[in-house]
Design a protein that fits this description.
By secondary structure, the protein is an alpha/beta fold. About 40% of the residues lie in helices and about 15% in strands. It has a domain of about 190 residues: Rossmann fold (3-Layer(aba) Sandwich), CATH 3.40.50. Helix 1 packs across helix 7 and helix 4 packs parallel to helix 5.
């Protein structure tokens, strides 16, 4: 049995990785600021949910005591705007740049050499968006620590799965909106299944050949954003007309959405979509990528145990 600290474990990808680690018998440490956020993981027999602030070095060191490896999945899609000459906003800086620096320092103090870090496809320090630049800076920092630490970096495209906030969001919007006015309709993505991502993370943990390596994680097919929105509407049973916006109107839409509660889109998101989120890579470790069409229709159409709850609630008037 190994002991693994998973940072960002209460998120969509984190839950899949923790479940897979627990299934093979590993002891998993799941830090969270609020215990209720990790409810789906609490009942797993080898998972230890701990309330902690991972942005404090002392807390990180304590969490790492006795661990064999650390997995960092922490990431955010939006931030307050950068000020002055800053390359990215303060929230991106804290989550994507400062935290990896804290993690590597805490690993040295706690005596943990192994780190598996999640970056993002097309992340680079000179990227077109604050998100990609901050992700690129964090990735570069972690890879630069190879003298003292054993690092592997994964760079997934957009991740889909039953609990995703990508295809499910498009399906939800089409349930309530008669027409979808879609910004950046020609943006290209290569969605990868969450279980494929989880398998890659778990497979590499104690494989020395993956040290200092970076892997792009993508699915087998490239789609435009328009393709994905149409698929979500069709498979959920709420297909709507999709009207693509020009670049100027796409930018204006992103700016306007910054003032909407929930902030579904931002100008920085728009800038990220100006480069294709695709790769020629195949999944490592002999794994075969799961086609989107093999999984998405099931959960978008409510044909999973979890998906059946919605129609049942509607019939009951809840």
């Amino acid at each position: 049995m190994s002991r693994i600290l998973v940072l960002g474990s209460s998120g969509f990808i984190g839950r899949a990785i923790v479940r897979r680690l627990a299934a093979r018998g590993d002891s998993v440490v799941v830090p969270t600021r609020r215990r209720e956020r990790a409810k789906p993981l609490i009942l797993l027999p080898t998972v230890d949910v701990v309330e902690a602030d991972i942005h404090h070095r002392a807390a990180l060191v304590e969490l790492m005591r006795g661990c064999d490896a650390v997995i960092n999945l922490v990431g955010i899609l939006q931030s307050r705007r950068a000020s002055g000459s800053a390359l990215y906003g303060p929230d991106f800086d804290r989550a994507h740049v400062q935290l990896p620096q804290l993690i590597t320092a805490a690993c040295r103090e706690a005596g943990v050499r192994r780190i598996v870090h999640m970056s993002a496809l097309q992340a680079r320090t000179d990227g077109p968006s604050e998100y990609l630049r901050s992700k690129g800076a964090g990735e570069a920092w972690v890879l630069a620590q190879q003298k003292d630490l054993d690092v592997t970096v994964f760079r997934p495209s957009v991740v889909f799965g039953e609990e995703d906030r990508f295809l499910n969001l498009f399906a939800l919007l089409q349930r309530f909106m008669p027409v979808i006015w879609l910004g950046s309709p020609q943006a290209r993505f290569q969605p990868v299944h969450v279980e494929d991502v989880a398998r890659c993370f778990v497979s590499c943990l104690f494989d020395a050949s993956t040290h200092a390596a970076t892997y792009d994680l993508v699915g087998p097919t490239v789609y435009t954003l328009r393709d994905l929105v149409k698929l979500a509407g069709r498979e959920s049973g709420h297909a709507r007309p999709v009207i693509g916006l020009s670049r100027p109107l796409s930018y204006l839409q992103a700016w306007a959405m910054e003032f909407v509660p929930g902030k579904l889109l931002s100008r920085d998101n728009y800038r990220s979509m100006q480069i294709d989120n695709v790769s020629s890579a195949t999944l490592p470790f002999g794994l075969h990528a799961t086609p989107l069409e093999a999984v998405a229709p099931g959960y978008l159409g409510g044909r999973t145990p979890r998906g059946r709850y919605g129609p049942m609630r509607e019939k009951a008037g809840r």
